[in-house]
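lol so apparently i was supposed to do this last week
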Amino acid sequence: MNNKYLLEISNLSKYYTIENNSKIEIIKNLNFKLKHNKKVSIVGPSGSGKTTFLNIIGLLDSEFDGNFYFNNKNISLCTKDETNKIRGLSIGFIHQFFHLIPELNVIENVMLPLLINKDEQKSYEISQKLLVEFGLNERIKYKPLKLSGGEQQRVAIARSLVNNPDLILADEMTGNLDEDTANNIFKFFINYIEQTKKTLVYVTHNKSYSLLADEIYYFKNKKNTFNK
Ligand SMILES: Nc1ncnc2c1ncn2[C@@H]1O[C@H](COP(=O)(O)OP(=O)(O)OP(=O)(O)O)[C@@H](O)[C@H]1O
Ligand SMILES: [Mg+2]
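anyway here it is w/ adenosine-5'-triphosphate bound
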């Protein structure tokens, strides 16, 4: 196994079981390699399996066939505890609908991933530093629903980065923002990723955003249904 790849995936297939015990095939024999410090975009029609794929590489879904190495670790051989640990330490997620916890204020939301390994004071300091960089210092005590969509997404981006993960996964992260806000956020985000030399996989329906990647993967709608 070559150390330069953060992700090495071969012959990945994924199907869901639907009614009558028939299977619907979403991903078939996918090969995917990702080096450190690279950006990959994933584009394709609705239902083509983009989120399904992010869930697999984000270690949220272990029900797949094929070979998957994350940082040289064979994920198929990992226990649930091991994959949870890798995910918590090494992967940051950004979603279309922000997924912030409404009861917690901005800085508490950002601190959450840190509290597993660090004390509260340290977690607060690291989170505050990042929120200052993200132009959100004035907002740290706000509850998320008091913020604009763009601000909420900046909080969610800060939360995904606070643990200094190896891999960032973004699923249509600007899909819920108006065009100007989306452009501003995406530009800011990509700059940050490049400056901090993070590895990024992002799903987007926006062609100009997808072109900023080092490599583009095109997902097609296949939806083969079969009985197994
Ligand atoms: N738990 C599930 N059980 C059965 N089918 C599922 C399940 N989750 C997703 N699917 C199906 O798998 C297909 C791929 O879904 P997925 O969410 O990965 O698509 P996507 O490419 O992210 O689409 P979009 O661009 O709309 O977000 C869809 O047809 C969806 O209905
Ligand atoms: Mg999706």
